[in-house]
Description:
Oligomer: single chain
Largest sheet: 11 strands, antiparallel
Strand content: over 45%
Distance between the termini: 57 Å
Number of helices: 1
Helix content: under 10%
Structural class: mainly beta
Radius of gyration: 30 Å
Amino acid sequence: MRFGIFILFLFCPIGFLFAKEHSEFCSMDRLCVIYVQDKTGVDVYFQNKIAIEETDTTLSVNASYKNMKSSVKLPLVTVLKGPKRKKLFRLNVKKTNKRWVYQIKYRWILGNFGVRHDSKVIYELPFDKGLKVRVYQGYKGSKSHQGDNRYSIDFGLKEGELITAARDGIVVDTEEKNTEGGFEIKYIHSANYVKILHEDGTIGQYAHLRYMGVLVKRGQKVSAGTPIGYTGSTGFSDGPHLHFEVYKPTPSLRKKTIPTLFRTESSDSEMIAEGQLHWRRDTNEPLVKIDSDADEIQICESVQNLERLGCNVTSFAKTAPMYFYIPLLKPSRHKIQISVRKNGTSIIKLYNWETNPDWWDTYLDVQFEESSEPLEGDWTATISIDGVVQKEMSFQLTSIK
């Protein structure tokens, strides 16, 4: 989150000014303090140079001074509307025949502290349709989602994957020229990002985009699902992912992140959590009623293959172990059952176990024992979770492989 802290310190000796003098100083090439000074004092203006008409900027200003008096009570918290400069106050000199000194301090944050989030809004998942994405860090995550970031979500997108708008709005700020990133505080202001203003005045922020990875411009109207950029790892980041949050400023110029509801593959309105696997679903598509990523349930020859998700074989040696891998959609205490049956025979083997609530996936290693009937031949495995069939898979057992 970009915000500014700026201190301006000036003094004027006796008789220094006889005509008006105009000067300005800018924070992050965005928010500028402008002063127009004459022999009786100084008018203090502020302007957000990159704002569009719809942009609100919350600003906190204070000043210390000698031989001067402010026209308004300070400190002052106000909202700048759009790109026009706004006069906030004047510091008048008390005795023009004596030296006068003033110091201006200000902080700012994009957004309006007076808005209220519409809790009825359902957000779309902020990535390309067809992607299946794991939530790497959820609300109040211990890694970095504390304090002002407590209601942020990290989606496990890979480098260069497409990011889309989660809600209709207007793009109010972007950054794409940063190239650095790492899990060190020195990179906190080095993230590339897109910020979208919503109808209720809150702002959606999409961060850690790759260098030159922004697809939208300030002032552009976007709808939910509009492509807005590509995943990267710029800023305070330990690897490629999308950091998503909805926020509003507070009167103290902190960032208040807001929990939101999403449409997912299995719900029309869901607060998603760490470890869950999700994908985008259109409103006219049926809900998914399974507990696993059925497409990725696999039988592997080794744990190494399982970890790489590179299990493309269907034939196994009867004397070697097999590994059944099951990625879960939502970590929970699930009851897993695998039933394996040799086709055309009465040979059936059942395997049952229970998952840990923190597991994102689970696997079982199976080694067949010799029986009175030969094991070689065609088999069918039925994988069930909590009594609901997830997938059936065919495989072969052979004497030698």
